[in-house]
Amino acid sequence: MLGRAGRWAIALLCVAGVPVLVLVLIHAFYGVPLSRYRPVSSDEVAYWHQAHTFSQVGFRGGFYTVNEITNASGLTPFGPHGPGFAVLYGLSGAIFGWARHSVVAANLIVLAAAAAVWIALTRVNVPRLLLAAVALVTFWHTVFWAPLGMQESLHHAGAIVVAGCFASVLGAPPRRWTTVLGWVVLGLLAFVRPSWTMLLPVWAVATTRQRRWPVIAGAVGLSLLYGAIVMVAYNRTVAPYGTGFFFLRVASLSLPVEQIADNVRDNLERISRTDQYRSIELLQRYQYVAVLLTAGAASLLAFRRSTRGGWSLHLPIVAVSMATALAAMLMVYEFASFAEHRVLSAFLLFSAMLCLAAPGRLPTLIVLGLVLSNVVTVRMAMTEFEAMWRDRYLWADQDLAEMRRAVDGNVVYRQNASRWCNTLLTSPYPSSLIVVPAGIGLSVVQNPESFRTPPRSRYLLLEDRVREAFSIPLELDAIATLPYGTLYLNRGSDCG
């Protein structure tokens, strides 16, 4: 017996393992501290700057739109991915301050906190706790995304907490506070990324499984209503772009079945072209399918052999959740640009953490198989990690200095002005936009020829070809010339 001290040591490894590993890898591969991080991709820059704005001025910042088309509610100024991530991470910035690396620090904190919640909810024995620590540290899909400013770490943390909630209500008569926690966490996660709505009916069944069938059916119905409310709220707070997200058009029932079938066929064709995916994406896909098939086959076999109430719901929930998530991805997402990896890796992690708390030997063997597949691919994972994020930690600051000189004193947040008067409309989207002051929204112009009235944004950053593509005359005063465009004051706006 390890005793209490040994259990605490293993729990500490479970909580701190991933954050410490990420810090070690950043230093080992790049020779720099975490504070050297900077956002690079357009999504990273947008997420980072929106959280920065919320941390300083809340919802009073400028717009983050595409072609100056705002969301239906008008309540929030945030972009095509909605306000959820900006608000959750921006709240931490409001409390602790917001630096260039704050988003990565927040990732590591939420992952550690999620592991602590899972331990408290599951109360697994020491061998299972040790396996959980090893499973988390070797789950490369979490380690891979943690050192940059995307949403994935938040969803991986959410997967761990949700798995803990399921384990808690399945292991004993549901406690009211755990039931409420599950509904709240799933609702928040779904508002950030609607794919989590698929777990709401499963949660309804898990929390009412010991009640009569009418109660269970009612709970499922209420979960569907809850999910619909979350979807409506999400849809009305995202900034539209182009034709919008495909899954939102499907949810609105505005698409014919043929288009959904075409999307499934296109995705299956993409999956067959394995040369278009990185090794870590393929690893996740193979792991996902293996866990899904194993859990599904075991659930069917157990159901056939069981009497009423004589079998555990852990593996059926794993199988149903994974199958539903995969089916939804095939129908309403596009298997490209890491989309499959980013969405499904959270469901794979949820399944692993739920298996760790499940009774019986098979769930443990499933996790052991997952760990083994990660151990034998450690070199691949480290190679992917080092290559993918190098430019986030090793960079020259000349472009930041140029942008800072251009915006200092020229692009200024005005507290009592309208949102458009605190908006910069830009055609290029360089990572140096992070030096634009908090409160200034970063909107994007993609189709200048579609503008029928002058842009409403007070500031414009335009490439010459984009400025010339506007079909209406622009009243602009040049502020500064940058390598990727010219910064203007828009005299055509209603900002004085």
Description of the molecule:
- With 496 residues, this protein is mainly alpha-helical.
- The protein folds into two domains: 3-38 and 100-391, no CATH class; 58-86 and 396-496, no CATH class.
- The protein has helices at residues 3-30, 42-57, 84-96, 102-122, 126-137, 140-145, 152-171, 176-192, 200-208, 213-237, 246-251, 257-272, 279-305, 314-332, 339-356, 361-375, 378-388, 390-393, 398-407, 464-469; strands spanning 423-426, 441-444, 459-462, 476-482, 485-490.
- The chain has a five-stranded mixed beta sheet with strand order 2-1-3-5-4.
- Helix 4 (102-122) runs parallel beside helix 7 (152-171).
- The N and C termini lie far apart (74 Å).
Outline of this structure?
This protein is mainly alpha-helical. It is 60% helix and 5% strand. Strand 4 and strand 5 form a beta hairpin.
Strand order of the largest sheet: 2-1-3-5-4
Count of DSSP E strands?
A: 5
**Strand-residue fraction?**
5-15%
Q: What does the average pLDDT come to?
A: 92
What gap, in angstroms, lies between the N and C termini? 74 Å
Major sheet, described briefly? 5 strands, mixed
Low-confidence stretches: none
Quaternary: single chain
Proportion of helical residues? 55-70%
Q: Note the overall shape.
A: globular
- State the domain count: 2
> What gyration radius follows from the Cα positions, in whole Å?
24 Å
Helix segment tally: 20
Order of helices and strands: HHHHHHHHHHHHHHHHHHHEEEHEE
